[in-house]
Amino acid sequence: MSSDERVREEYREECAATALLTDKYELTMLAAALRDGTAHRKTTFEVFARRLPEGRRYGIVAGTGRFLEALPQFRFNDADLELLSDFLDADTLGYLADYQFNGDVDGYGEGELYFPGSPVLSVHGTFAECVLLETLALSILNHDCAIASAAARMVSAAEGRPLIEMGSRRTHERAAVAAARAAYLAGFSGSSNLEAQRRYGVPALGTSAHAFTLLHTSADGPDEQAAFRAQVDALGVGTTLLVDTYDISTGVANAVAVAGPELGAVRIDSGDLGVLARQVRDQLDALGAVNTGIVVTSDLDEFAIAALRAEPVDSYGVGTSLVTGSGAPTASMVYKLVEVDGVPVAKRSSHKESHGGRKQAHRLAKPTGTIVEEVVHLAGQPPADVDGLVATALTHPLVRSGDVVADLSLGPARERVAAGLQSLPWDGLKLSRGEAAIPTRMVDATRQA
User: What pLDDT is attached to residue 52?
Assistant: First the structure.
């Protein structure tokens, strides 16, 4: 078995244990529907966000690939069924024992922009097979869309300078892998997380922490040069040396003294990063290390990155603000029933109304590529007159009869993010508060407000 096959097999085993990572009411609804005969009615469920987080002007679709990978493995084993027998009847347990999703899924490609009302995922099948997927779909998409959307803002703020995701120590161990994938999808250069490299091919990056420098301390005191020498001997002069364990000026001098002027980079992890970056750049140039880069870390977010654009910073390391709720607020995705046996259905609740019917979407742009609006319409009824604008279909087949038909590789997703950010109106890229970057227009969608 090849290494890639082994990774896929391990992931299948992990996914096979996810059937209980769901909410109880999915199963009680199933039981009631089986009892009254409605379980096998043909339905469409839709994933969308009613609104963007405050201050956000666009979102990035992420997690679709993870959802589609998990879908064929979403099965209930004997141990699961034994646990569920405490509250489910024999008919429901029998249905779950044979459960496998055999329906269709349509949706936006990973890396695509989304806005309020965008039908990013549509799940088609019987009520029984679709309702069970609500928690799986939302737990994956809400997490990954939030991370990717935050990461994309940081990519825009960095204006082409590389970013490294390094938040593994600030989140759940499995969430860390998903976060690394979402950040890479959104345009980060790589991640510190090795499992993300193994599972998804995300480039793994990293060198050393302060502990390694502190390790090289004896009764005579700290020996920073010894630490740097050990790292260079192991990793070569192209490595990045962490220079702020003690005094930064001394650290830079020691780094160049050990590695020479061809040192790859130095990293600053504390203090006033803008001021220090200028000082370090001047010092490196004076020492002849004119090509040595400067990496900054330390609780960076998109606003801090934007504030450092005028400084001689070559790359950024981002952790806490990317993988936690403060930097990546929830995407607020919901999973709603919109059609039953071909009849549109919609929720009427105040402030939580929905638009009925199976829907698709097109994005309208000027010939120059700048997006004008997103049009959401009933399936098979695209906008007829676009007034000289270019219409691009956003909804594509992802699963047919239970089989994944979409390309799940990250390369095309990264290209979509880059193209999407370039196509936004300039105002839509601002980090300041404002409305969604472009309007979403509902056409012929049944709405019950």
Answer: 92
